[in-house]
Amino acid sequence: MRYVNQHRHPFIFNLVISIASSVLVGFAAWIISAILNFPLLSILVPAWSLVFMGTMLIFLLAALFRNFRRSSRRVFVILPAFIQHPWFTEVLQNLLRTLDAQHLDVVIKIPARDFSVQGQALHFRSIIRSSYDYVGGFIIPAEPENLQFEIIQFCQQIHIPVVFMDVRPFSKVSDYPSNSSFVGYDPAEIGQRAAYYISRYISQNQIDKPTILIVGSKAQHARQEICEHVLRDKFPEAEILVNNKGEFERDRAKEIVFAKLKEAIAKEQLVDVIFCTNDEMALGAVEAISVVQRETKLSTIVVGVDGAHKALTLIQSGESPFKATIVQDARRISEVAADLLLRQLAGEKIETEHLLHTETYPLGEPE
């Protein structure tokens, strides 16, 4: 029944409409003939064929009714709880703008704060129950390693295109359900770019035994893991501290960085570089540095990820410890995601994963 869809399979849809119309007219003619005892049909019709025609009519009308329910061209967007962060807000705004230009209505589902995994699972079940109201949808999964079964079950039951964004739902392409795809940035590339920038900064400033603090999150953990691996290989003598409890939150990162800076000062040590795996946490690190600097002069620099507007503004000013960010283009990811959905609705076969490329801002050498 999923192939009788005017948006995804227009040829089949039109063919079914034609057949349904013919069956309906024939069936109506037979009924009128029987009621009026007027031979509208020139030949006798066997009873079994009438039963067959009636059954087919019911089947086709049900299919048409299902497509009628989808005629609103509605799509769903399931988000994680931390969508309020500026970069995610920009992604969502661009996605809505692109979909609106295609006359697609959007239903947004956001879990309660700190309950992303359970909340998204509930939204999956809710959308399955009303799946005929949608032609497709987008998901930014929260902790997909804890949602594997629910994600697979959801895609298998909903039978419409699903585009995952930003966070890879599966580690292998072969694990994706046939109606799903992914667009986003490679977390390994992000970690490598950050490590490359930090390495150049350390080398140019001839820091012999650097101390580096990496503030990450359980989500997108490959960003901090790859960065740490590259830096340890490059600077075996470096002290690299990794804290995975930032949860992409500015206040949490501020607390983590403040505690570490105070501890370093007590030991008469320095923290040379702080790498935060998103710009919100990097802004929290900047706030912590500004508080500590009231007591002691610091030369600590901060590197972030996303390319959020406030981060770019601070970097451009040249007066902040925020020196660089690994840019993920929010508009680009939104446009590609929308394009993938539209191409699938048109019946086009697409690649499963679409990895976009990041860039470092600013592009020049670190000072």
Give the gist of this structure.
Helix content is 49%, strand content 16%. The chain is built from 11 helices and 12 strands.
Would you kindly provide a written description of the structure presented here, covering whatever features stand out?
With 367 residues, the protein is an alpha/beta fold. It folds into three domains: 10-69; 74-185 and 330-357, Response regulator (Rossmann fold, 3-Layer(aba) Sandwich); 188-327, Rossmann fold, CATH 3.40.50. 49% of the residues lie in helices and 16% in strands. It is built from eleven helices and twelve strands. The protein has helices at 10-36, 47-69, 86-101, 116-129, 148-158, 187-204, 222-234, 250-266, 279-292, 309-317, 330-345; strands spanning 74-78, 105-109, 136-139, 162-165, 180-185, 211-215, 239-243, 273-276, 301-306, 322-327, 353-356, 359-361. It has a six-stranded parallel sheet, with helices on both faces. β9, α10 and β10 form a beta-alpha-beta unit. α8 packs parallel to α9. The longest helix has 27 residues, at 10-36. It is elongated. The N and C termini lie far apart (61 Å). The model has no long low-confidence stretch (mean pLDDT 85).
Could you list some keywords that capture this structure?
elongated, 367 residues, six-stranded mixed β-sheet, 3 domains, Rossmann fold, alpha/beta
